């Protein structure tokens, strides 16, 4: 077995003990990217000499010598972010982004840049200036977006960890489709400086994508700049929505797997599952979209919109211009909904410790036609996915997606857990408890691409 097939924490520990040579591990990662990446288009650029220079200068941090992929949303000192688009509306230039510094100071080695959905504008990953990323479980399927490349890279075991960004589900969607654990941190807790929306966004966060919760904890600790303690959750009160489309209008196999996982988590922690209600959940998703679009207006002028790059896809050209037509009242109303939802969540988290519902209502759809079949009918994946994702970004609370099964098509199924503001550690604890409850079956499941014999 290659050192690349070890967990993130096992790689770090083996380097410290001398069992793994970090230079050899870096070479293996570059070789595996060359071998496996053409099938999934997860990594859009490598820079071996830069990576080797990082390794040579790596301090003795908790991730010393561990290869890592970073999303195309983050600038590097030698490379400007491209945002998966032919052109960005905001200025893009090379620089030391917060996630880059966090990885560098922890001793990690950035081995490549991960593909992403064009302009962060989709939950599927099927549109990008680099071409679509592909799901390692089935390369004809969507890997999720917008952190599509980082998720596909970890799923295919090109690296054991990757840094994404989550504006409206952009870490959780690809984690769900690719069978990974992905943490959307509490707003403001993870490194953000250097992002083109830093200082403007109230929605976007950096976060980890890894095979399991313990690896997410290690990488999140790096991004947070603080050690996230491990706990043993006991008596968890888990809230599930009763009579809401987010929990009910989902594919039967997804509903069955998620209900089973919630019951298992409750039993494993000596807790209980409670039916809860949360008014205006659908309105909160719309409010999240409106606020995100309003914030993207920063620095945009009519002249700038009239000079859009011709290779920007029509849908994102339309989105860019639509923002200029948004009525101010929509932004004001969205802010009012945000306030109401924060108050409701604060009250609800006095009654339960976690909220649980499917991360996405159906397994990964085809790249060529990202549609999903739900009890209510056929809808686009974007339309279906955002219903359960927008709340965490709108209110700033943490959320995590954990794998809980595999559907009839052999594609991953995922459960989303949310907790009160600042309770990121509880989510990680709960995710680990769920892994133990199912014997780590799903976090150790490999997609066909990663299970194939490899030379690296």
Short description:
The protein is of the alpha/beta class and 456 residues long. It has helices spanning 8-17, 22-40, 48-56, 98-105, 148-155, 172-178, 213-224, 245-248, 252-268, 281-295, 302-305, 314-323, 328-348, 381-395, 424-437, 448-451, and strands at residues 43-45, 67-71, 109-114, 161-166, 181-184, 205-210, 237-241, 272-276, 354-358, 371-374, 377-380, 399-406, 412-418.
Describe the overall structure.
The protein is of the alpha/beta class. The chain has a single domain (3-287, 325-451), classed as Amidase signature (AS) enzymes, CATH 3.90.1300.10. It contains 16 helices and 13 strands. It has helices at residues 8-17, 22-40, 48-56, 98-105, 148-155, 172-178, 213-224, 245-248, 252-268, 281-295, 302-305, 314-323, 328-348, 381-395, 424-437, 448-451, and strands at residues 43-45, 67-71, 109-114, 161-166, 181-184, 205-210, 237-241, 272-276, 354-358, 371-374, 377-380, 399-406, 412-418. It has an 11-stranded mixed sheet with strand order 1-3-2-4-6-5-12-13-9-7-8, sandwiched between helices. The termini are close together. The relative contact order is 0.15.
Find the CATH superfamily. Amidase signature (AS) domain
Rounded average pLDDT? 96
Shape: globular
Number of domains: 1
Through-space gap between termini: 9 Å
CATH architecture: Alpha-Beta Complex
- SSE pattern: HHEHEHEHEHEEHEHHEHHHHEEEHEEHH
Sheet of most strands: 11 strands, mixed
Give the CATH level 1 class.
Alpha Beta
Global Rg: 20 Å
Beta strands, count: 13
Structural class, by secondary structure, is: alpha/beta
């Amino acid at each position: 077995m290659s050192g690349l097939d070890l967990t993130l924490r096992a790689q770090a520990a083996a380097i410290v003990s001398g069992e793994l040579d970090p230079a050899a591990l870096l070479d293996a990662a570059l070789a595996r990217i060359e071998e496996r990446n053409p099938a999934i288009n997860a990594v859009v650029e490598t820079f071996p000499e830069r990576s080797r220079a990082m390794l040579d200068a790596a301090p003795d941090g908790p991730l010393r010598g561990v290869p890592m992929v970073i999303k195309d949303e983050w600038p590097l000192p030698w490379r400007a972010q491209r945002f998966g688009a032919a052109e960005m509306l905001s200025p893009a230039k090379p620089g030391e982004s917060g996630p880059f510094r966090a990885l560098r100071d922890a001793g990690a080695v950035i081995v490549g840049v991960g593909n992403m959905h064009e302009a962060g504008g989709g939950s599927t990953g099927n549109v990008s200036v680099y071409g679509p990323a592909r799901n390692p479980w089935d390369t004809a399927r969507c890997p999720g977006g917008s952190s599509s490349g980082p998720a596909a890279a970890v799923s295919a075991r090109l690296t054991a960890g990757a840094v994404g960004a989550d504006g409206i589900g952009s870490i959780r969607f690809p984690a769900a489709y690719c069978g990974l654990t992905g943490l959307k941190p509490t707003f403001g807790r993870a490194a953000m400086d250097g992002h083109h929306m830093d200082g403007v966004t109230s929605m976007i966060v950096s976060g980890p994508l890894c095979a399991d919760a313990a690896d997410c904890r290690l990488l999140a600790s790096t991004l947070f700049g603080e050690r996230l303690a491990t706990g043993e959750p006991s008596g968890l009160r888990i809230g599930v929505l009763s009579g809401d489309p987010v929990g009910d209008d989902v594919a039967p196999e997804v509903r069955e797997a998620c209900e089973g996982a919630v019951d298992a988590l409750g039993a494993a922690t000596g807790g209980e599952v409670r039916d809860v209600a949360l008014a205006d959940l659908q309105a909160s998703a719309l409010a999240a979209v409106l606020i995100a679009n309003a914030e993207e207006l920063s620095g945009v002028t009519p002249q700038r919109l009239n000079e859009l790059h011709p290779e920007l896809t029509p849908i994102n050209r339309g989105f860019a211009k639509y923002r200029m037509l948004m009525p101010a009242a929509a932004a004001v109303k969205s802010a009012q909904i945000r306030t109401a939802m924060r108050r409701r969540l604060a009250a609800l988290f006095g009654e339960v410790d976690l909220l649980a519902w499917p991360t996405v209502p159906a397994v990964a759809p085809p790249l060529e036609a990202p549609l999903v079949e739900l009890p209510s009918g056929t809808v686009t994946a974007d339309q279906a996915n955002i219903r359960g994702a927008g709340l965490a970004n709108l209110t700033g609370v943490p959320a995590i997606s954990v794998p809980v099964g595999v559907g009839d098509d052999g594609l991953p199924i995922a459960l989303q857990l949310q907790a009160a503001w600042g309770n990121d550690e509880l989510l990680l604890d709960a995710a680990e408890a769920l892994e133990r409850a199912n014997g780590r079956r799903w976090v150790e499941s490999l997609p066909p691409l990663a299970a194939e014999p490899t030379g690296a």
